[in-house]
Amino acid sequence: MDTQNVHYLNVFLGGGAILLQVFSVVALYLLFIGPKKNKYLAFLDKHYLQIGLILSLVASVFPLIYSEIIDFLPCYLCWWQRVFMIPLVFIFASAIWYKDRKVVKYTLPLLIVGGIISMYHNFNYYFADTGNLPCDASGVSCYQQLVSEFGGYISIPMLALTAFFALITIVLVAHFYKKED
User: Fold this and answer.
1) Structure pTM?
2) Which stretches of the chain are assigned E, i.e. beta strand?
3) CB neighbours of 114 closer than 8 A, spacing ≥ 6?
4) pLDDT 10s per residue in the chain (181 long)?
5) How is 44-73 classified by DSSP, letter by letter?
């Protein structure tokens, strides 16, 4: 891919990530602080399996596009985040197939561990002083700024953190939202 197309992909994914962050914060606000019954949370609760499948699929496919097509080699923290994201595609797809809405107990541990790794990755990416050091013997650095959009706010680690945050949000909505209040 040429650099202009990569830039457009980065802007597209970055804009989507920012929207997803806003929607997630609004959902968490409504779930824990706002009115108990509303259409937004009812929609998320009703379609959380489909939304979870779409988000986990996008969060699994685009890192592969970055690494296999664009040739941005993933660091070891990116690999660990993939380990916790990719199975979610199959869990959500199986839950849709079997009409099982009780996948919170299977997805939440994967999401929490992946989210913790992603928070650690973001902390190191944005605040560490070791920008030139490789993370492991492969020479790939967790601190390389391969994607930097919207003033440096959107990066590959931020995209991953956004995916984990949004998935945790919809799973929490599906678990805690009460329709009959």
Assistant:
1) 0.88
2) none
3) 80, 81, 83, 84, 85, 164
4) 677 888 888 888 889 999 999 999 999 999 999 887 889 999 999 999 999 999 999 999 998 888 888 888 888 888 899 999 999 999 999 999 999 988 998 899 999 999 999 999 888 888 876 555 545 545 555 556 667 677 777 888 899 999 999 999 999 999 998 765 4
5) HHHTHHHHHHHHHHHHHHHHHIIIIIS---
